[in-house]
């Protein structure tokens, strides 16, 4: 599941797990619900100058959708269609997580201290900034390798955040396992670091730096939504005008 801690103006959202499989942080309905609940708490407590840092335990930031969970639904019902329906349900539920992050009234930073694959990479890229460890992490859009097309909002996010056509091709049409250094060059990651501890420390520094600006949350969220019109249109987020309160 996940935990939420507040350190002054910083909110620390941590993906947690009780065992090796759980620490892959595969996105199933329970984890998606837990993340959305934590983000709702962050939003309700937000003040000008808040910032969010998302990190994880173990060797994975997130290994994408929980296909084992979907397969179990199919086995239980005796129908392959039930497994497909459950996967599609998770795709739809996860849309809400991306929407929550894109509309969150504060800067957001993902500290990627382990592998981020498929929907797990989309989770990281839904943040404004990404720090990543070069010692044990790759970014991997695995959909091509497993024979699955990308959900529309995945594609829109990648188009919005990965600027070069050759980089997008490498990421999604070659299913490359992208290292931290490569991800920095592609503009997906802001900084690469030697250890998980250094990744988290860099994310905290960035959060503290941004927090000092004391930006208004509504204006920040409004500008972010306007910056990614295709993605936010698919997510159902509206571009709202925010004016200075002192006018």
TrEMBL record:
Source organism: Dorcoceras hygrometricum
Superkingdom per UniProt: Eukaryota
Pathway the protein takes part in: Lipid metabolism; fatty acid beta-oxidation
Key words, A-Z: Lipid metabolism
Protein name: Delta(3)-Delta(2)-enoyl-CoA isomerase
GO molecular function: delta(3)-delta(2)-enoyl-CoA isomerase activity
Pfam families documented for this protein: ECH_1
Enzyme Commission identifier(s): 5.3.3.8
Enzyme class, broadest EC rank: isomerase
GO terms classed as biological process: fatty acid beta-oxidation
Catalytic activity as recorded in UniProt: a (3Z)-enoyl-CoA = a 4-saturated (2E)-enoyl-CoA; a (3E)-enoyl-CoA = a 4-saturated (2E)-enoyl-CoA
Record's keyword annotation contains Lipid metabolism: yes
Residues annotated as transmembrane: none
One GO CC annotation: peroxisome
Family: Belongs to the enoyl-CoA hydratase/isomerase family.
């Amino acid at each position: 599941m996940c935990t939420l801690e507040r350190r002054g103006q910083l909110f620390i959202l941590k993906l947690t797990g009780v065992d090796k499989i759980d620490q892959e942080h595969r996105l199933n309905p329970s984890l998606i619900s837990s993340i959305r609940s934590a983000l709702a708490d962050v939003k309700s407590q937000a003040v000008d100058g808040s910032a969010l840092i998302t990190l994880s335990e173990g060797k994975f930031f997130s290994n994408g959708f929980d296909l084992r969970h979907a397969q179990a639904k199919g086995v239980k019902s005796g129908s392959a269609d039930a497994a497909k329906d459950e996967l599609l349900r998770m795709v739809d539920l996860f849309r809400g997580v991306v929407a929550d992050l894109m509309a969150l009234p504060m800067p957001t930073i993902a500290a990627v201290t382990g592998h981020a694959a498929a929907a797990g990479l989309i989770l990281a890229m839904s943040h404004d900034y990404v720090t990543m460890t070069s010692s044990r992490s790759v970014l991997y859009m695995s959909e091509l390798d497993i024979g699955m097309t990308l959900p529309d909002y995945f594609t829109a996010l990648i188009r919005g955040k990965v600027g070069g056509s050759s980089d997008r091709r490498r990421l999604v049409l070659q299913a490359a396992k992208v290292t931290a250094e490569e991800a920095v060059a592609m503009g997906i990651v802001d900084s690469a670091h030697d250890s998980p501890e250094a990744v988290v420390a860099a994310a905290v520094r960035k959060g503290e730096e941004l927090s000092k600006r004391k930006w208004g949350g509504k204006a920040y969220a409004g500008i972010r939504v306007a910056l990614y019109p295709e993605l936010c249109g698919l997510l159902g987020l509206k571009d709202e005008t925010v004016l200075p309160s002192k006018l």
